[in-house]
Specification:
The protein is mainly alpha-helical. The chain contains 3 helices and 2 strands. The longest helix is centred in the middle third of the chain and has 13 residues, at 32-44.
Length: 67
């Protein structure tokens, strides 16, 4: 798993935006490009060499990432 805060940092968005993008929130308008970028980073784990963290740091379940 990759920490949500690491995905947000690598994507250049806030943790809240990363969370909304990963969960495909309908309550908040997020550009499709941003959703795709966050999803790509979360799935690939490409967080710029940042350390992996456990679930207690807000880890992303990759089976639920918006495509």
């Amino acid at each position: 798993m990759v920490a949500l805060q690491d995905v947000a940092h690598a994507a250049g968005v806030s943790i809240a935006t990363a969370s909304w993008a990963v969960n495909d929130s309908k309550d908040v308008r997020i550009p499709e490009e941003t959703k795709k970028r966050v999803g790509r980073i979360a799935k690939s784990g490409a967080t710029g060499g940042m350390p992996w963290r456990g679930a207690w740091h807000g880890a992303v379940r990759l089976d639920r990432v918006h495509q």
